[in-house]
Fold:
Amino acid sequence: MSQLSTALKPRRNVELALLVLALAVGIGANMMVGVDKEKAFDSDFWFQSSLLAVAALAFHGVLRFRAKYADPVMLPLVVALNGLGLAMIHRLDPPGADTGNNQLRWTLIAMAVAIAVIWFLKDHRILRRFTFISLAASALLLVLPLVPGISAGEILGARVWIRLGPMTFQPGEVAKITLAIFFAGYLSSNRDLILLAGRKIGPLQFPRFKDMGPMIAAWLVSIGVLIFQRDLGSSVLFFGLFIVMIYVATSRISWVVIGLALILGGGFVASRVFSHVEQRINGWINAFTPEVYENGSRQVIQGLFGMANGGLVGTGLGQGRPDLVPFANSDMIIASLGEELGLIGIFAIVLMYLLLVTRGFRAALGTRDAFGKLLACGLSFAVALQCFVVIGGVTRLIPLTGLTTPFLAAGGSSLLANWIIVGLLLLISHTARGPVDTTPLPPSKSADTTGIDTPTEAVKQA
Amino acid sequence: MSDLTITALRFGFLLLLWVLIFSIVSAMRRDLMVGRKAASGAPTAREVRKNPDLAEAPPQPVKQQARQLVVVEGPLKGTTLPLAASPVLLGRAQEATLVLEDDYASGRHARLFPQGSRWFIEDLGSTNGTYLADQQLTRALPVEPGVPVRIGKTVIELRP
Structure:
């Protein structure tokens, strides 16, 4: 691990410089959107831009104060993506609609929550105490949308929303964080047992059921609820997270093989059993057939036409017609950006995601505790998989599923969850890049959580 | 606003996006110390290209020495275990790789694991501790062949 250590420099000034550039991208995009319209540089523009800038600089200030050694490029990347998303949503708002301002409100809430995570959590290792609480929390969050009274009912074919006063919220977005915490906590304590105990069948070694029980339960809960909620995208995300975290913990390629086989098998069964899955797959393979276009693939095809119209350099922000695509500001925001920024712009956006994910994995490499490594890997992978599923779906590489584009798409819950992920990654990178912290964790309040480091059999028997 | 200004702004914005990306990549490049060893003052890749004698000789690959684990003392005296590339769990628990029939060993007592060309031993929070050449382990340490490792009343050694 020590070969990977970097010089102990906070590099907060680098972050500030990059942040100014990122804000220039976000605010510049917002300016371009309305530049040829009457309302260019109106009070709305100044209000939105200054709020975004103040929030981003406040975040930077908190990092200076609380997580001095945190990764310097993560925050600028996320602010740039968030700013681009805000501008595009604002641009797509039909007269009278308020999605843009709503997204800005959620951005501010999400940044405040991420700041709170950094401010109050201080050390990600504390989360390890909540391993099984996170499992319970994930189960609760995933079941909530099915509970009558809280549930917002079926919206667009999926039951994943709950009602919170005037707003709707997708608890599954937060569940991916709590599940990652559970997987990281459980696997970091039981890694050796899963690796060493168990019988070998052929070339693959299977762990004992006892050791894998909680993991299988977590997986069944997430997959089961998602079948009832009819949300294909999230079940792919949870399953991918599950496989990757086991693979990272045990470094056994057999998990990836088993996982891919299960995804293909499960996908085949689901396409036969569930009509909505079958429709998605049909809309992917036969997208250009007129009948399929009329009921299903219209969205993808319009998005493809839009991107083709954009070409290499795009039509320019505010100059194209991305509004012709259904859900242009949420599911299809990549197609909207692809049309107006062109291939050159969309590659820049994909690269920003790539850089963000590599910084997450870099934090995982640098941090010294197994829990932090697993958590950082899981969270970065969740972001990466989401990007792959959404961008792959929009460009017709894989069937379109209902996942959100991190930081870009309109939707408060996704924004909130992804900002919390960034907050956690920043905290982990702070311990990874900072001086070695030898002080013990503050003692936990309840006694029963001290048994994280499983006692030996002798102690148990005594 | 004229078409020309709008076109200029359009390309200017794409340029700005890529300026951001290249700034971030260059910030990361310095962060990762690519081609430069920060503290040791070793020559950079570019310097080596100019003066080939500056390049250090590549380290000699060390062959993995220990091939088996031998119990030299204790109830299981004489037992040998071939070492592969996977870690070895030592303890009284049934799932251990080497199940020690030793009342003074814990269920999951210690773990031997390969890293690079060497084997390391790590105590898994055992009750009576693990001793490497009479030193109690407080962290993972490399085990050289022939050095005794004591777990309870059992002593094991790695042999080539």
Notes: Chain B touches chain A through 44 residues (CB under 8 Å).
